[in-house]
Amino acid sequence: MKSELGRRLAGTKWLRGIGLASEEGDYHVKVNVEALTPEVLAAVPAQCGSVQVRIEAIGDIHARGKKH
Length: 68
What we know:
Elements lengths: L1 H8 L5 E9 L2 E8 L4 H6 L3 E2 L2 E7 L11
């Protein structure tokens, strides 16, 4: 599931990461993005196979200790 979604979203500039997550026993695929935009909402499916996909806007990612 995660690999399939990764291939589908590869090359998008807003993607920050894809992982598996659990919240109160509910497992889902979590897609981290720069911001929730219409493009993101159109590209990321609600489900991948039978697993729910959740999107979280996390902004830019920077290495620790680096100032930008």
